[in-house]
Design goal:
The protein is about 35% helix and about 15% strand. It is of the alpha/beta class. It has two domains: about 180 residues, NAD(P)-binding Rossmann-like Domain (Rossmann fold, 3-Layer(aba) Sandwich), CATH 3.40.50; about 170 residues, 3-Layer(aba) Sandwich (Rossmann fold), CATH 3.40.50. The strands form two sheets. Strands 3-2-1-4-5-6-14-15 form an eight-stranded mixed beta sheet, sandwiched between helices. Strand 10, helix 9 and strand 11 form a beta-alpha-beta unit. Helix 5 crosses helix 6 and helix 10 crosses helix 11. Bound molecules: nicotinamide-adenine-dinucleotide. Nicotinamide-adenine-dinucleotide (NAD) binds next to helix 5, helix 6 and strand 8.
């Protein structure tokens, strides 16, 4: 199979979908790997490293898309990439279809076979290709939150951990999954007052067992959320209903009860966001104010720490990419229930119920 890796073109995206070691594994398995020149530079991976691994370099995205049977990417195809995608071509990447009708329609029209990292479910029911980026975004959310709570960044001027004699910041984390748990772990290390809200009691019991004493776990309902918003200096949005648009947990009206200069980091913005006033932003212009509450809604947070994220992502995607390349699409889909869960669109037909439901499309 010919496997193609274009350079990511989403704004401020520095990741690449394959490591040199991954290119070498694919070549060793008898495949051809075509990589767009300089695609790895943002992650500190040079053209020479890919050439040494046996990959071929090409000058343009068009050359990658025209030749490849399977495209490996990081972020969803951008509108200028839509016309390059061919019917029957496999596209294996993050899509987050529920956040964009334009992307969903574009991929239906392309006739391609879209396998989404974020919906691939393993036998244990977890999302192994979303997990590493959620780990990155969760840890990073506290790093960013700490920065934007500083006064020159338009925050309240609060130090997360406080100091002896002065209380630490109150952090409310909506959703205690991978993002939420990683955010809590880092925030706890800062000595902040951390509160995780979730609706899954088993998850809350687990978090209660493993988290340090400055982390409280709370059942998430309207009253608890409203009370937490009054106390919070930093709110992290980290809920997920896989494949579907995020549930909206904080309305515009709720912002009125928050402290001026408090910060919301809506990590779930890639699935539409769990705060009514969230809208996707980029690393070069990450924040905006609504009712004196600072919003940070970068949809590709891990892109800013491209090197860490590229390694973390490629560690988990390579085995699936190898399987797709070795077995071909139909055989691997028939043999692997996990890969079938990644299939969102096949040759013009939506095959993921949540995506179809979001846009009222036939399923
Ligand atoms: P996860 O499935 O591990 O966790 C989600 C949690 O939300 C679950 O524990 C679930 O019980 C909980 N939940 C669902 N509905 C809830 C509600 N009404 N109230 C409280 N909790 C609720 O998911 P994750 O891997 O932690 O991802 C969270 C979000 O972060 C996803 O939307 C994911 O796409 C996003 N994400 C964004 C970035 C970015 O760069 N912005 C990066 C990685 C992940």
């Amino acid at each position: 199979m010919i496997v193609g890796i274009p350079k990511e073109i989403k704004k401020d995206e520095y990741r690449i979908a394959i490591l040199p070691v991954g290119a070498e594994e694919l070549v060793r398995a008898g495949h051809t790997v075509i990589i767009e020149k300089d695609a790895g530079i943002g992650s500190g991976l040079t053209n020479e490293q890919y050439l040494e691994a046996g990959a071929q370099l090409v000058d343009s995205p068009a050359a990658v898309f025209a030749q490849a049977d399977m495209i490996l990417k990081v972020k969803e195809p951008q509108p200028e990439e839509f016309p390059l995608i061919r019917p029957g071509q496999i596209v294996f990447t993050y899509f987050h279809f529920a956040a964009s009708r334009e992307l969903t329609q574009g991929m239906i029209d392309s006739g391609s076979i879209c396998l989404a990292y974020e919906t691939l479910r393993d036998r244990r029911g977890t999302l192994p290709l979303l997990t590493p980026m959620s780990e990155v975004a969760g840890r990073m959310s506290i790093q960013e939150g700490a920065k934007y709570l500083e006064k020159p960044q338009m925050g309240q001027g609060i130090l997360l951990g406080g100091v002896p004699g002065v209380a630490p910041a109150h952090i409310t984390i909506l959703g205690g999954g991978i993002v939420g748990a990683n955010a809590a772990k880092i925030a706890a290390g800062f000595n902040a007052d951390v509160n995780i809200l979730d609706i899954n009691m088993d998850r809350l019991r687990y978090l209660d067992d493993v988290m340090p004493p400055n982390v409280n776990v709370l059942f998430s309902d309207r009253h608890v959320i409203r009370h937490q918003l009054q106390l919070a200096d930093l709110v992290i949005g980290a809920v997920l209903i896989p494949g579907a648009k995020a549930p909206m947990l904080v309305s515009r009206e709720d912002l009125k009860h928050m402290k001026p200069g408090s910060v919301i980091i809506d990590v779930a913005v890639d699935q539409g966001g769990c705060i009514e006033t969230s809208k996707p932003t980029s690393h070069s212009d990450p924040t905006y104010l609504v009712d004196d509450v600072l919003h940070y809604c970068v949809a590709n947070m891990p892109g800013a720490v491209g090197r860490t994220s590229t390694f973390a992502l490629c560690n988990v995607t390579l085995p699936w990419a190898l399987r797709l390349a070795n077995e071909g699409i139909e055989k691997s889909l028939a043999a692997s229930p996990e890969l079938l869960t990644a299939l969102n669109i096949h040759s013009g037909k939506v095959t993921n119920q949540a995506v179809a439901g979001t846009f009222d499309l036939p399923y």
